[in-house]
Amino acid sequence: MNCPPIVHHTLLRSSGGATRVAEMLHTALRQRGVHSSRTWELDEREAGHKSPGLDQAVAAWQPVLEKGGILHLHSSHDWTTTLRAVLALRQEFASFGNAALGGNGSPGSENLFRIVLTLHDCSLLTGGCVYPLDCPSHFAGCPDPCPRGFPESARRKDELRELLKACNPLLVSPSGWLKNMARSHVSGPDTRVVPNGVAWPESSTLSGLGGKQAKEAARKAVGVGLDARMVLFVAHGGEKAVYKGGEYWRNICAGIRNAVPGALFFLVGGDRHDVEGDLIHWPYLDGERLHTLMLAADVLAYPTLADNHPLVVLEAMAAQCPVVAWNTGGLPEQIMHGQTGLLAPYRDISGFIESCIYLLSHPAKAARMGSEAFVEGGKRFNVQRMADDYLRIYKKFV
Q1: What pLDDT, on a 0 to 100 scale, did the predictor assign at position 10?
Q2: What is the torsional sign of CA 346, 350, 351, 352?
Q3: 370 vs 372: CA distance, rounded Å
Q4: pLDDT tens readout for residues 175-207
Q5: Could you tell me if 42 and 15 are in contact, meaning their C-beta atoms sit under 8 angstroms apart?
Q6: Which of 23, 24, 26 shows the shortest CA–CA distance to 12?
Q7: What is d(CA 256, CA 353) in angstroms, rounded to the nearest whole number?
C-alpha cells in the first residue's frame, strides 16, 4: 500500500464521536494494509488508574513520524498544549537535521512531518465554545469577559489561530458548514470535506418496505408491540445534553402525545434505566443494542442545537429509521428533506413536533423515507467510503 504510516490521536480511548471516527478509520486502514496506530490522552475505561496523558502519546508518535509518517489529530483535552507539543516535536526533529522526514533537514523546515487535523467540532475556532450557537460576539471576535464565562476567551482564540498557522496542518471537516466557518478563522490552504461514515449493513439483512421483518424482530427484542408508535431520542447525557437539545425532549413528547395517543418515547443517554408512564429511560447504548432500538423506532427525534456531522443520524439511516431534526449545522448535508428525513426550521418546536407527528401518522411514507435513507446513506456515508477519501488525502504526502 503506497501510503505513509498514520498515527491517530484522540482525547479519549473509546468514547465520543471523534474517537469513534478515529477508531473506525484506523481499523479500515489496517484492513487495507496501511500501517495505522492510535494514541489517546485519557482511558475512561480504567477508573482509578493513571491515564496515559499527552506526554506518553507524544512519545508514541515519534517512531511513526521518524519514518515519514502522518500525525492525524482528531480531538484533545487542551488543543493549545497539544499544538505546542507538535511544534516542539518538529523543532526537535529539525535540530537533528532528519532529512528522511520529507524536509530539507534544516531547522525550521515546515515539511519535517505532515499533520492532518479533522475538525470534529468548533473548539479550535473559538475561545472556549464547542459550538458558538447564536453567540452575537463570535464572528466579531471573542470578547473578554466572555458572555458564556470562558476565561480569557479572546486570548485563547488568537493563540489557537497562531498555533494552527505555525503547525500548518491539512484541515479536514466532515461538513461543508464547518469548512466555511474554518475559512473565516484560519488562513492558508482550503479545508477539505470528508463526510463521516459508519458501518453499513448488507441490504440482505433488511427486507421488505422499511425493513419490515427486521423491525418486527427489533420490536420483539425491546418489548414493544408491532402496532405501537415509537419515538427515539438519543444523546450522551440524555435530557441534560445542552447542545443536543435534551431540554426540549419532554416538550416534544408532550406535543406528540396529544396528537398520537399511545405513542412510546425512548429517552436514551442519561443515567436512568426506568419507566415513567410512556417515557422509557435507558442509559447510552453503543453498537448492536442501539442499532436494535433504531430498527424498532418509527422516528429518531434529534433536536440538536448545533452539530457538525453527527454519527447518530448516520446510524439511524443505516437502520432505516427516518430522522427529524432542526435545519442547522451539517444536518442538511446528511438529511435530504422529504426524501430521507425531515428538517424543521431552527428552534421551531412546533414545526419539529408536527414533523414527528406526520411520520407517525403516515407509517408507509415513513417506511419509504427510511428505505431511501438506507440506500442513499449507504452510498454517501459508509465507513469504507470515508476511508477511501482519507487515503486519497494521505497519499498526497507520498
Answers
A1: 97
A2: positive
A3: 5
A4: 999 999 898 777 766 799 999 999 999 875 665
A5: no
A6: 23
A7: 6
Residue 6 DSSP label = E
Closest of 210, 178, 189 to residue 306, by C-alpha: 178
- Cα separation, 86 vs 46, in Å, equals 27
Whether the per-residue pLDDT at 104 is higher than 50: the answer is no
- Eight-class DSSP state of 56: H
β-pairing, 70-73 with 170-173? unpaired
pLDDT of residue 207: 52
342 DSSP β-pair partners:
324
Partnered with residue 9 across adjacent β-strands are 39, 73
Which residues does residue 173 pair with via DSSP β-bridges, in sequence order? 193
Per-residue pLDDT tens over the stretch 44-84:
877 665 667 899 999 999 999 988 899 999 999 999 999 99
Q: Is the peptide bond before 145 cis (omega within 30 degrees of 0)?
A: yes
Say whether pTM exceeds 0.90: yes
Q: Which residue has the cell 443494542?
A: 289
DSSP alpha helix (H) spans, the chain: 17-31, 53-65, 79-95, 153-167, 176-183, 212-222, 249-259, 288-296, 311-318, 331-334, 349-361, 363-380, 383-395
CA nearest to 342, candidates 350, 328, 333, 352: 352
> CA-CA distances (angstroms) from residue 199 to 21, 309, 369?
11, 15, 20
pLDDT recorded at residue 149: 80
